[in-house]
Amino acid sequence: MLSEKVKKEIEGSLKKYPTPRSAVMDALRVAQEERGHLTGEEMREIAGILGMEPVRVQAMGGFYSMYNVEKPVGRNHVQICRNISCSLLGAEHLISHMEKLLDIKTGETTGDKKFTLSTVECLGSCGTAPMMQVNDDYHENLTEEKIEKILKGCK
Amino acid sequence: MDKILLCNIDKPDSHLIDTYIKGGGYKSLKKALKMKPENIVQTVKDSGLRGRGGAGFPAGLKWSFIPKDPTLRKYLCCNADEGEPGTFKDRAIIDKDPHLLLEGMIITSHAIGAADAYIYIRGEFAFGAKRLDEAITEAYEKGFLGKDILGSGFSLDIYVHRGFGAYICGEETALIESIEGFRGQPRKKPPFPALAGLYAKPTVINNVETLACVPAIIERGVEWFKSMGPEKSPGPKIFGVSGHVKKPGLYELPMGTPLREIVYEHAGGIKDDRKLKAVIPGGVSAPMLTEKDLDTPMDFDSLAAKKSMLGSGAVIVMDETTCMVKVSYIISRFFSHESCGKCTPCREGMHWTTNVLKRLEEGDGRPGDVELLESLCTNIFGRTFCPLGDGAVMALRGAMSNFKEEFDYHEKHKKCQVS
């Protein structure tokens, strides 16, 4: 079920566009922000608000890689970049290091649901490679020590 | 050269409107609002400003395609989807000097007669999206946005539209589809966005850096802008240098600065004093160059003459320890991941090249793999719906033409020659 807060935010988004459908990306994002992922029920509710067919909303959820459709993630979604600039400066090694630290493989979530580890293809921060994103925050110029400190600081 | 685009980013509270105004910000807007829209278009045309997003199309010419009919609704879209690996220039402007972008957008909207503008920002830039929202609120409070801006009779609203993880939305028609609430897949052109773009209305789509050039052109004039760089692609350019250099980062320099100067003077040379092996001059779509090409001026035409491209000005430097098969695999994997799936040569072809490169890289190459890659390139290039497939092939061909022996070695010996 979408919360009243989310519904209110969706209403705010509707004002930005001449067609309600344009608000679908904002709607999916704000719904996801509450629990970290999207359920089928939430997407059907969004479809109802925007006057869209549910399958069209689901198609959006499937196309854009940042929507976690029916795929719960941990409280801290750690996304480490593995594209060219990060790779040249040791991203693969840091990914392995993080897998060891968290005792999970890339794509998995820790048993306590605290961390989900993902790899991504370029986060647009190549001058400060290697880098990663934890939820909305960028962490740059990573080293093993820096990663350990960042993970320790996560709630 | 005085910094134009990055002149504010190191100031404390550079993102606030008061800081921006104190540094002379929004003066150009006041000047532009007194100009006739067609004169602004002509000024930008005369300046020779070419789009900084990758294609290098003349910005003023693009604006001039917008129909003059005042009864038609028109849109401006700022492309802040910055997703090409190696590229990180627009984020600096968005995060640290959002009002420079807004001022450029307001002037551009006035020039083309748009009453609504959208900033399409990639979803990962959550901080930047927040900064832009705050900057937009400040601009409304000062009367630079909204109804009857500064008593000029011109009205404009700017909205932030957040993408959510699709590189293809940097392609202008996919960006439009995405704002309209569809999957970001490119549209067939024509009609071009200038005639039927967002909501089927005339639309201009410009990159962040392009729009950020506009206030300075209005303030300082055409001759000043043309005094920097080559005649056919003048102005300042932000080069984003990453990879194996001592001082990676953003360098604002005149267009046409030689690649050697960027790598060895500004970025401090190769990390750990190793030898340079290759440089990608403009984001991963741009075919790589080697030592012999380092004196190439970094501008659209000089790089095209070297069978590469300026793209977004994202310089990725690789030293002698770099395996080009691995680099090609990473680049191919990126394009395969980001293929929107609309057309078969890209969707299937990129997946195929990625698989072949992966097995070559991992020492599982099969006889004929290098030939297969060449054949795949031939069957993808020029046969895809949008330029994504072409970009991927150009990158792979660039690596294979410069470092063919490395690919052959991987195939034959099932191991890397370099690392």
SSE arrangement:
The complex is a heterodimer of chains A (155) and B (419).
Chain A lengths: L3 H11 L9 H12 L4 H11 L3 H10 L12 E6 L2 H5 L2 H12 L12 E6 L11 E3 L2 E3 L4 H9 L3
Parallel strand pairs in A: 1-2
Antiparallel strand pairs in A: 1-3, 3-4
Helix pairs in contact in A: 1-2, 2-3, 3-4
Chain B lengths: L16 H6 L4 H7 L3 H11 L11 H6 L10 E6 L8 H8 L1 H15 L3 E6 L4 H16 L15 E6 L9 H9 L22 E5 H13 L1 H5 L9 E8 L5 E6 L4 H8 L9 E5 L19 H6 L8 E6 L4 H15 L5 H18 L7 H12 L6 H16 L1 H10 L6
Describe the structure.
The complex is a heterodimer of chains A (about 160) and B (about 425). Chain A is α+β, with helices and mostly antiparallel strands and about 160 residues long. A four-stranded mixed beta sheet of chain A has the order 2-1-3-4, covered by helices on one side. The model of chain A has no long low-confidence stretch (mean pLDDT about 95). The longest helix of chain A is centred in the N-terminal third of the chain and has 12 residues. Chain A is about 45% helix and about 10% strand. In chain A, α1 packs antiparallel against α2, α2 runs antiparallel to α3 and α3 packs across α4. Chain B has a four-stranded parallel beta sheet with strand order 3-2-1-4, with helices on both faces. A four-stranded mixed beta sheet of chain B has the order 6-5-8-7, covered by helices on one side. In chain B, α7 links the parallel β2 and β3. Chain B has about 425 residues and is an alpha/beta fold. The longest helix of chain B has 18 residues. Classes of the chains: A alpha+beta (about 160), B alpha/beta (about 425). Chains A and B meet through α2, α4 and α5 of A and β3, α8, β5, β8 and α13 of B.
